[in-house]
Design a protein that fits this description.
This protein has 510 residues and is of the alpha+beta class. It contains 18 helices and 24 strands.
Length: 510
């Protein structure tokens, strides 16, 4: 009997399954897409958890079929997924409403209430993070305030990947890394915060059990086995949120290791040996998927989403059939700096460094001879500029940066690789098999199953650098000057964003 490790990543756009051998090699992978998230009002983002489950079960079956793997061949399963979501369940574990996901921006009033009731400094002291619209707690409070009939039936909540675990096993469980993004975890002590729960009036009975990422916390049930190609009784580890899971897949496990990942969102992620905090709360301080290790990260809400938005906008034009590759080829034909065109990627508000859910996207500096290629290049550069904002904060906080590895869509485009090297001002690395958080989840499963003695050993065995990209000195100089101008955009536009939001506020439901 062969023995494989299965990793699953429940993303925003789809769920990806990856089978990994005990030598760390990827055997097969498969993805099932999700329905696009619904946005019934400005700044809202919701998905159907049942759609996640359908995609997850299908991706597992597809992945096993590709590799011709039987239900006896999978030794252990690891889960990863989009963070900060809120799946509300009733006393029978039935979903009460669509999940409010990570990029939803409706909860500013709940954040203000937390700052007033608990105190901004106290919230950071208890959880290592400020109250932001993205965090799960603010979503629960919003439902309590705005949907009393739903709240009357509320008994528990799960994060997105943990809802898939529940459907696979019948168990309520989560991991320290994903729980860090709820604003309910005492991140420094790696346990749920009783102080926060008591202060906001939530019962601790609504919390799932929290485990370290490499701990086995559940086993596949008969019902889960029937829906997938897995054997009943197969162990499942706690896993990780997508950012910590993706960092494991890139080998970002020791202090000084940094990743720049561009998916729907963009993340600069640095592993640390202690819970390092920004007093202003501009970055997240979370538990890592490695036991007794933490990480800091800055988030750009609409990174890959910016490029997707532009492609989809053009798709409505007659006879338009351009692919991402064709758009990026057009961008590559334009000079560094996009002839003065700048993109502020605030399509879903912004986290790092502005903490402003009212921020909006802006294309600044358009002139008549700018082409579609200029716009695409400005988008690629604007996303990287936004991520460089986090590098500046790392320097301010004295977080060491020994190396930067690229992940996500930004790692698969040679142009975006070079743009990032030029903007970050240092060499960047691309690994051989970039399968993101699903790969990281499989490696965590391998540690639990005894294939490797530690997460560090798993990464040394399975993660290898394929190429390194050095910055071009001339382009780096252009990008440095362009970044200086980019940093003036948000302060200049902030009053405009506020007026636009206030003008639309009466359109929002109470």
């Amino acid at each position: 009997m062969k023995s494989y490790l299965l990793g699953l990543d429940v993303g925003t756009g789809g769920t990806r399954a990856v089978l990994v051998g005990k030598d760390g090699a990827i055997i097969s992978s498969a993805t099932r897409e999700h329905q696009p998230f619904a946005s019934p009002h400005n700044g809202w983002a919701e998905q159907d958890p049942h759609d996640w489950w359908s995609a997850a079960a299908g991706a597992i079956r597809d992945c096993s079929a590709k590799a011709q793997v039987s239900d006896q061949d999978v030794a252990c399963v690891g889960l990863a997924g989009q963070m900060h979501g809120a799946v509300l369940l009733d006393e029978n574990d039935q979903v009460l409403r669509p999940a409010i996901i990570w990029c939803d921006q409706r909860t500013q009033q709940e954040c203000d209430w937390l700052d007033h009731t608990v105190g901004r400094e106290r919230v950071i002291q208890l959880t290592c993070n400020p109250a932001l619209t993205n965090f799960t707690l603010t979503k629960l409070l919003w439902v309590r305030n705005h949907e009393p009939r739903v709240w009357q039936r509320f008994r528990s909540f799960l994060l997105p990947k943990d809802y898939i675990r529940f459907r696979l096993t019948g168990e309520h469980a989560t991991d320290m890394a994903d729980a860090s993004g709820t604003l309910l975890l005492d991140v420094a002590r790696r346990r749920w915060s009783s102080d926060i729960m008591a202060t906001v009036g939530l019962p601790e009975s609504c919390l799932p059990r929290a485990f370290e990422s490499v701990e086995i916390c559940a086993r596949v049930s008969d019902e889960g086995a029937r829906a997938t190609s897995l054997r009943a009784g197969t162990p499942i580890v706690a896993g990780a949120g997508d950012q910590a899971g993706g960092a494991i897949g890139l080998g970002i496990v020791r202090q000084g290791d940094v990743s720049a990942t561009i998916g729907t969102s963009g993340v600069l992620f640095a592993a640390t040996d202690r819970p390092t905090m920004d007093p202003q709360g501009r970055m997240h301080t979370f538990c890592h998927a490695v036991p007794d290790r933490w990480h800091v990260m800055g988030v750009t809400q609409a990174a890959g989403l910016s490029l997707r938005w532009f492609r989809d906008l053009l798709a409505g034009s007659p006879n338009y059939q351009k692919s991402y590759e064709e758009l990026i080829a057009e961008a590559a034909a334009t000079p560094a700096g996009a002839d003065g065109l700048l993109w502020a990627p605030y399509l879903m508000g912004e986290r790092t460094p502005h903490l402003d859910p009212r921020a909006r996207g802006a294309l600044v500096g358009l002139i008549a001879n700018h082409t579609r290629g200029h716009v695409v290049r400005a988008i690629l550069e604007g996303v990287a500029f936004s991520l460089k904002d986090t590098l500046a904060l790392f320097d301010e906080m004295e977080v060491p940066v020994r190396s930067i590895r690229l992940g996500g869509g930004g790692a698969r485009s040679t142009l975006w690789q070079q743009i990032q090297a030029d903007i970050y001002g240092q060499e960047v690395e691309i690994v051989e098999a970039e399968e993101g958080a699903a790969h990281g989840a499989a490696l965590l499963a391998g540690v639990a199953h005894g294939v490797w003695n530690s997460v560090e050993e798993a990464c040394e065995c399975a993660v290898h650098v394929a190429t390194r990209v050095s910055p071009h000195p001339a382009a780096m100089d252009v990008m440095r000057r362009q970044y200086e101008i980019y940093r003036t955009l948000y302060p200049a536009l902030k009053p405009v964003f506020a007026r636009l939001t206030n003008n639309q506020s009466r359109e929002m439901p109470n």
